[in-house]
Amino acid sequence: PYYPVQRNNVSYGIIDGHHTFFETPTPGYENTLGDQVFSPVFSKTRGFYKSPFELQLSVGDPGLKIYYTTDGTRPDAMNAILYEAPIQIETTTPLSAVAIDISGHSSEVITHTFLFAEDIVQQPDNPPGYPSEWSPFKYTAGNAPADYEMDPEVCNNPEYQPLMESSLTSIPTLSLVTDIGNLFSHSTDPETGGIYIYTGNSGASPSSLGIDWERQISAEYIDPVNNSNFQINCGLKLHGGNSRVPMNSQKHSFRLVFRSEYGPKKLNYNLFDDKRGADNEFNTLVLRAGYNYSWMHNNVEQRIHTSFIQDPFAKNTQLDMGDPSPHNKFVHLYLNGLYWGLYCITEKVNNDFAESYMGGKEDDYDVVKDHSGLVDGNRTAWDQLLNQTKAGFSSNAAYFKVQGRNPDGSINPVYANLLDVDNLINYIIFNVYIGNNDWDHNNWLAARNRVKNDIGFRFFSWDAENSLTDKYVNMVNDIQGEPTTIYSALRSNEEFGLRFADHLREHFFNGGALTSSAAGERFRELAGKIDLAVIAESARWGDYRRDTHPRDDVAVLYTRNDHWKVEIHMLQSDYFPDRSDIVFQQFRNEGLYPGIDAPDFSHYGGKLKEPVYLEMSANKGEIYFTDNDSDPRAIGGDISSSRVTLYSGPVLIDSTMVIKARAKSGNDWSAMTMATFNVVSEPLSKTDLIIGDLLNVNLYPNPFNAHLTIQYNLPENGHLKIQIISMDGRVVAELYDGLQIIGNHSVTWQPETLKSGIYFYRLVFNRSIVAGKIIKTD
Questions:
Q1: Which residue from 108, 454, 545, 739 has the highest number of Cβ atoms inside 10 Å of its Cβ?
Q2: CA-to-CA distance for 484 and 431, rounded, in angstroms?
Q3: DSSP H/E element including 583
Q4: Taking the domain 11-133, which CATH number applies?
Q5: Architecture of the domain delimited by 600-679
Q6: What is the reported pTM?
Q7: Is the pLDDT of residue 120 over 50?
Q8: Domain 686-776 in CATH 2.60.40.1930
């Protein structure tokens, strides 16, 4: 069955045979409808259709009247059509309906957009009810001419005509439906003006008119491939900086805002559905139109080298390096049924984002940005970080203090943990790798939990469109903003230098995220997702600079085959094969990688079905390694006292372990080579799985908040593994993995960043399993 987007703290169920929300809590009593009005039910759901059909609207209460509109107008009893008979749907139609009772109470407005590819590809340049001019030009007189048409030169071209329908259905659709005036009214009234006319950076007086205007809309997500969809009522505003300027671009970015005044406080949907750990609750989403290196840009060189992939590539790279970053997904966007082009949905970096990926509560986060900007919270801790940066980090006392630690690296709870050094290193490395030319004087964000003090500021990729352009560009010493200023100051510290080298070793070798193969595959994956979708984008906007923009002398129709595919091929055949080696050598030339090479392994970890012998080699010095996830080098340069072994021959890997190794020659250490081995036995048979109280497991407290204690009794000596499992089957914590003797035992778990919810504990003892449910509260 289909269920609408759910609301926080509002139950959903059945009354009188109809599904509805119950806004009034009735604990211990039967649910009641109260003043709520049943929403209309549609006989057909949103999506793509090839043939006309009759649409029936119904509602559970015969005393209710249904009103509907088909032009984006939010329906009510005064402006809408009274439903009296089935509606004939023959063309692309955004249909919104509402039920109203005799007292004037209204239901939630429900919208279904019905899409017909046959008429979308014939979209005219003068749709009824829409203005012929848009935003006032900022640097010259007049208004920007409107552009609505799907160019027949593309849609009817023998190369593309057979692919047009596939182009429109190859990726998900996002349909935004709202009063036409909310988008295109030339009124300067903040309550009624059009956000697409007064962009917040136009020739209006003042230029910033409309910068914060927000309008109520319906948003529908339609995925033809996976046959999934949702609809939510929310807010819409424009997003961006220079892309708002009418002379620069007429394809603008948007922001979806989820507030209780429109509908649910958050969108709760598995939107990104990828393997990179995306959350499924959002209070804001950004719809990126693409400006730099797009067919809209005022620079012809950028238009020629359009790929649409740079920004999502940067975000996915940061994710693949092991850090949080905004997830993203390409969609086709429609405004009131008018095709608006290829867009990329991405998470907005704010305190809600930080809570999702760093734990804690959203109100506890400070989120800062470029140009001394503040997204959420305050700048007190950030200013402390900048002050410590000015003082310098050459001493270990200063270097570790900014991380909330003593000079020996141990945690000092009195010190503010201001910087996640590992995150900053990765952040610098991948921005240098992509050659991000519009950073970090622009386009950076950082977040920190001011209450917990367990993690310092972390940095997140944002608006990296101006990248992947020159495989030889060198940005290792390009210091333009606050993040690179911090990085520059840290380079004076020896511990930081070797830590930086460790990250270079991790990401540029042995299948790391920035090896040629991994980076190239990441790019190919993104290009493959939009290979067909780019055809529709070409039909919508590929002719804009040639046919519509009044002051462009380059008469070019940009198409997939003649332009986009050429750029994709160049990047795949020339940029990615060489860029990794070039950037690594740039870092090494600046002293950020030691002269002594790191050890090489015969195996680099992963799942092993049987034990193996690990061989190590180095071209210089002796190899020291550990098998307990600790560094063989102590702070200051001595050999660590924590289970360090001098390599003398193959090492037996017969259990799960982390091997870390460095080469040492005199007083010089190499970067670290690391491998995680997970030795797994054969799968358990059904007869080996015992779900129950085999080990006399006792948990307290449950539900729990700060800590959970698990007590158990082992009937014999054996191997025990204790894990915490999420509802979707992910292992979120491993509390024990090793041999234990017969008798009573206990383990106490103190999760620091675990979100509230339902989880499962699992004890695997020899070839038996005991499992059960636990509940984490705030």
A1: 545
A2: 10
A3: helix 576-589
A4: 2.60.40.10
A5: Sandwich (2.60)
A6: 0.85
A7: yes
A8: yes
